[in-house]
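**Folding the chain**
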Amino acid sequence: MQCPECQSTHIRKNGKKKGKQNHICVECGRQFIDCYDPPPGYSEAVKRVVSQKC
């Protein structure tokens, strides 16, 4: 695993947030989670229906 900021491999666990393991880079201090899933948002079908009503 590498830091997304400085690409260092000197990483430590730093608690959990919303059920996901949080990590911290020892070199630059950046906190991050290992695998980030962006919020789902609306599906393309819902976006089409809403845009047709406008």
Observations:
- The beta strands are 11-17, 20-25, 31-33.
- The chain has a mean pLDDT of 87.
